[in-house]
Design brief:
The chain contains 17 helices and 12 strands. The protein has about 375 residues and is an alpha/beta fold.
């Protein structure tokens, strides 16, 4: 099995699942796989992947995992942890087909159940692809990871690892975290992966994803999506997990609704697309407009980071705002192969009380990262007047 533990998944999937089951327990959704890089999958890939997915039905929350989550995740109620104990992956929620080298994957079902599929499915796709194409890590890849850990420590960059989705393999991921912890010391804050956080005794990092705001856009309308997304997150977590994701419908739109209440309540912001320096300046301007000292706030930078980019961002933020970095594929799949460029995104939702499914979209601050039906994207842009 590629996925060998129930918690070999990212924290934000569990935090989002908890919020969904409290507020939208009957909502149904569909996710779709997008092969952004256009790579061709080898013959028999879909069948091999189906076996991996079927094997996940046997996974469950172990006693060790339960105790770790109760200890680390103070923001989860005992009721939710009991729900996780009874949860089992249902392979019938996942449809996988292959036409030549093209792979098609969809996930359908209740949102609170299907939300857990995205990360492990992408980890399976990545690792299985390298297995079936007989690609192996180059000799000395560990030295590359050590050099990055040392470099990040040298510039005093506080960072976390969140490369589960596009990692080369579980074993590489596991070794990387050990290297980062040993060589970066206090600068290595932790990981998004719950199982590896438990194994290496590190902090767990994560809050909410784009799909949280995408759903709110479909349910409440695009003009209210950011406000309702923040309000509902606050209802569930009461100030915990307080890093707000800004770019689902563009950062400019987000800051229109990011008023003093939310600016004071949330500890900071997450940058995930566009230019990091431009984003930072917009954040500084907004905090200044609201009379808030930006030095008390944090920006988590998380898009396509490497040491050089982190260094450039640090130079700009120095003395202005706290800076923290989330680094993914550049840590868990820098072993001499070309990582897969792929995503699994929410495509449509059926909220409670709706008769027909509603399409969802994501704009971001990079047009190349827009996702969803083109007509719906156009409607969203015209509605929020980007």
């Amino acid at each position: 099995m590629i996925i060998r533990a129930f918690t070999d998944n990212d924290l934000y999937k569990y935090t989002t699942m908890n919020a969904i089951q409290q507020l939208f327990p009957t909502a149904r959704v569909q996710y779709k796989f997008t092969n952004r890089g256009g790579i061709k999958f080898p013959e028999g890939f879909a069948e091999a992947m189906k076996k991996e997915v079927a094997a996940m039905a046997a996974l469950y929350l172990t006693k060790e995992e339960e105790e770790y989550i109760r200890k680390r995740c103070y923001f989860f109620t005992p009721l939710y942890i009991d729900l996780l104990k009874g949860y089992r992956f249902n392979p019938d929620e996942v449809t996988i087909t292959q036409n030549g080298g093209d792979l098609d994957i969809s996930i359908e079902g209740l949102w609170y159940r299907t939300v857990l599929w995205e990360v492990p499915l992408m980890a399976i796709i990545s690792e299985l692809y390298f297995i079936m194409t007989d690609q192996k890590p180059q000799e000395g890849w560990e030295d590359v990871a050590v050099e990055k850990a040392d470099s990040l420590k040298a510039i005093d960059a506080y960072y976390s690892e969140f490369g589960t989705r596009r990692r080369f393999s579980f074993d590489v991921h596991d070794k990387v975290i050990g290297i980062l912890k040993e060589h970066s010391g206090k600068c290595f804050l932790g990981t998004s992966n719950v199982y590896l956080g438990m194994k290496h005794n590190t902090l767990l990092i994560g809050t909410h994803p784009h799909e949280w705001f995408m759903y709110h856009g479909a349910h409440y309308g695009y003009r209210m999506a950011n406000r309702m997304g923040l309000e509902n997150w606050t209802r569930v977590y009461n100030g915990a997990l307080g890093i707000a994701l800004c770019d689902t419908f563009t950062t400019d739109n987000f800051f229109r609704f990011f008023d003093r209440k939310y600016a004071k309540l949330f500890d900071g912001l997450r940058w995930d697309s566009g230019d990091p320096i431009e984003f930072t300046q917009k954040a500084l301007n907004r905090y200044a407009e609201l009379g808030i000292d930006s030095r008390t706030k944090t920006i988590v930078y998380s898009d396509s980071l490497d040491v050089a980019r982190v260094s450039r961002i640090k130079e700009f933020t120095k003395g202005k705002i706290r800076d923290v970095y989330g680094i993914g594929t550049n840590l868990t799949n820098d072993v001499g192969v070309k990582p897969l460029n792929m995503v699994i995104k929410l495509m449509q939702v059926l909220p409670e009380g709706y008769d027909t499914p509603v399409p969802v979209v994501k704009l971001s601050d990079s047009k190349g990262k827009y996702s969803g039906d083109p007509e719906e994207i156009d409607l969203c842009i015209r509605t929020i007047k980007v």
